[in-house]
């Protein structure tokens, strides 16, 4: 595996973890994991709209990075190897 593939794997893994964490931080209906994590991060009375917009943007960016690195990795992965 070349240097490009190693860099892609690292970026892919970081973007996967970031996407999972950002999705869990979205506010839900008040129950579940998203409420436990995100409830302490912002006050529902002040600025939650701005926080949600930024959270949406970060989620979309991290998911797009994940998808792009996945496609590039699929094209550059050496054929016939398992590791």
Question: What does this 3D model show about the protein?
Answer:
- InterPro entries: SecG.
- Keywords: Cell membrane, Membrane, Protein transport, Translocation, Transmembrane, Transmembrane helix, Transport.
- Belongs to the SecG family.
- Involved in protein export. Participates in an early event of protein translocation.
- This is Protein-export membrane protein SecG.
- The mean pLDDT is 79.
- The chain has a domain of 54 residues.
- It contains three helices and no strands.
- The longest helix has 29 residues.
- It has 83 residues and is mainly alpha-helical.
Rg (CA only): 17 Å
- Taking pLDDT < 50 over at least 5 consecutive residues as the criterion, the unreliable ranges are none
Query: How far apart are the first and last residues' alpha carbons, in Å?
Result: 8 Å
Order of helices and strands: HHH
- What's the β-strand tally? 0
Structural class: mainly alpha
Count, helices: 3
Main beta-sheet annotation: none
Query: How does the overall form come out from the CA principal axes?
Result: elongated
Quote the average pLDDT.
79
Subcellular location: Cell membrane; Membrane
Protein name: Protein-export membrane protein SecG
Transmembrane segments: 6-24, 58-77
Organism: Kribbibacterium absianum
């Amino acid at each position: 595996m070349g240097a490009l593939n190693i860099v892609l794997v690292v970026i892919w893994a970081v973007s996967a973890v970031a996407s999972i964490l950002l999705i869990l931080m979205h506010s839900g209906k008040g129950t579940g994991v998203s409420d436990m994590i995100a409830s302490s991060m912002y006050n529902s009375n002040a600025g939650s709209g701005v926080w949600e917009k930024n959270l949406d943007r970060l989620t979309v960016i991290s998911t797009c990075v994940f998808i792009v690195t996945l496609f590039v990795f699929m094209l550059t992965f050496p054929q016939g190897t398992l590791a």
